[in-house]
Amino acid sequence: xxxxxxxxxALLLVGCGTxxxxxxxxxxxxxxxxxxxxxxxxxxxxxxxxxxSKYEEITSIKAVNTSKKLMxxxxxxxxxxxxxxxxxxxxxxxxxxxxxxxEVDISTDKKIILELERLEKALESKxxxxxxLEKALDKIISLSKEQT
Amino acid sequence: xxxxxxxxLPPEAQSYQAFQDKREVKRPLLKNCIKAFFVGGFICFIGQxxxxxxxxxxxxxxxxxxxxxxxxxxxxxxxxxxxGVYDRIGQFSGAGSAVPVTGFGNAVISSAIEYRTEGFILGxxxxxxxxxxxxxxxxxxxxxxxxxxxxxxxxxxxx
Lengths: 148, 159
Prior knowledge:
The complex is a heterodimer of chains A (about 150) and B (about 160).
Chain A: H1 2-17, E1 29-30, H2 43-52, E2 58-65, E3 69-76, H3 84-98, E4 103-107, H4 110-124, H5 130-144
Parallel strand pairs in A: 1-2, 3-4
Antiparallel strand pairs in A: 2-3
Helix pairs in contact in A: 4-5
Chain B: H1 2-7, H2 11-23, H3 29-57, H4 66-82, H5 85-93, H6 95-98, H7 101-114, H8 120-127, H9 132-155
Helix pairs in contact in B: 3-4, 4-7, 7-8
């Protein structure tokens, strides 16, 4: 009985301890896409990544844009997820102010992060035409707006 | 309230109660809580694995993956209840297996199995939700109250 109590408390302490290490934002995962030889210039997406990387809570940023739309997906530290909705709304507001001529969307959904990562990789390998990129991004945006 | 009832008992019954209290094996409350915590947590972990599977391999987002995950968990519980495995888990962990959605699945299927002998319509059909019915009623009722409070706070409270 005593050993069970001891092990469970030890596990709880270990679980709590791991979070405090990942302060600071040196290990943020972001990938600037080449702006010159792509179907659509990815400068706005790169600017958004640069801007958002100053937030310590963010651990990974993916962003892709077409000429009119910008889709950003961010991953934040797990214990920060309590204020996820507020954080997302505030960043969305900032991004809309920064890119007033574009339709900006921010998502914190794992699926959107995965899809944007896939699209970023395709853009890097220059396998995507302008039309394909627009179609893929529209699909991701509609996926991000799906509700239960 | 229990003490009040005891005071009203005749003296023989009271002394018997005292005699029984001394010899009764005490419930290992802390041990039960820890068991429930770990088994319940493990069920939630399986749920998270299923959610991640749906997100990675199908077109579900974090928002939409919830419903198929719940359906899958209930289906697995149905099978486990049918094979008599979930009852053992329930005996071991108590609330740990009853509080997650799998407990709901277990409540439905175990009543269905129990009333199987009384026929499909008047037996299984009418008794299937006997245990799970209160969960649905109070779940819907409390959801309504919370939604009402949220609406009042957001619309009029300026939250």
